[in-house]
Amino acid sequence: MRDEQYWVSLANELRAQPKETGWLEFKHNNAEPQEIGEYLSALANTAALDGKAHAYLLWGVDDTSHAVLGTTFDPTTKRVGNEELESWLLRQLAPKIGFRFIRLTLDGLPLVLLEMDAAYRHPVQFGGAEFIRIGSYKKRLKDFQEKERQLWR
């Protein structure tokens, strides 16, 4: 298991990126489960297209300045109905990919990092739909057939 210093270092490395990418998204507090699931699909699929092993969603960071704001999102207490968030997300993914939520502290403020594996062999679906990032926007993969063909290759 990696220690907190590794995750803090990774969070700083991600914040040092000039802007959000196809495999990196910043959020402040948005913890809507459906959105998180769609981002899992979009970021994992785009990471595969960009040749990355992992993709990341980082809560508690301003998406423009990358300043540390802290977050109130806590994935360990978030539920969808009676189900834990992580279990619910995993159940909606096809194929199942590895992902984990890491809680860390940076500049005395709480952050949450979601690290996910890139898509492998098949585009990742969430709730029966495949998503992709076009610039910093999340879109349905079926609307971008050239990207879908690339991903299947």
Descriptive report:
With 153 residues, this protein is of the alpha+beta class. Helix content is 29%, strand content 29%. The protein has four helices and ten strands, in the order αβαβββαββββββα. The chain has helices spanning 4-15, 33-49, 85-92, 145-152, and strands at 24-27, 54-59, 79-80, 83-84, 93-94, 99-106, 109-117, 125-126, 129-134, 137-140. The strands form three sheets. It has a four-stranded mixed β-sheet with strand order 1-2-7-6. A four-stranded antiparallel β-sheet has the order 5-8-9-10. A two-stranded antiparallel ribbon has the order 3-4. Strand 6 and strand 7 (109-117) form a beta hairpin. It is globular, with a radius of gyration of 15 Å. 35% of the residues are buried.
Summarize the structure.
It contains four helices and ten strands; from the N terminus they run H-E-H-E-E-E-H-E-E-E-E-E-E-H.
Key words describing this protein structure:
153 residues; four-stranded antiparallel beta sheet; globular; alpha+beta
Low-confidence segments: none
Strand runs, count? 10
Structure class: alpha+beta
Shape: globular
Distance between the termini: 33 Å
Instruction: Name the beta content range.
Output: 25-35%
Total helical segments: 4
Spell out the helices and strands N to C. Answer: HEHEEEHEEEEEEH
- In spatial order, strands of the major sheet run 1-2-7-6
* Radius of gyration using CA atoms only: 15 Å
Main beta sheet = 4 strands, mixed
Overall mean pLDDT stands at 92
Percent of residues in helical segments? Answer: 25-40%
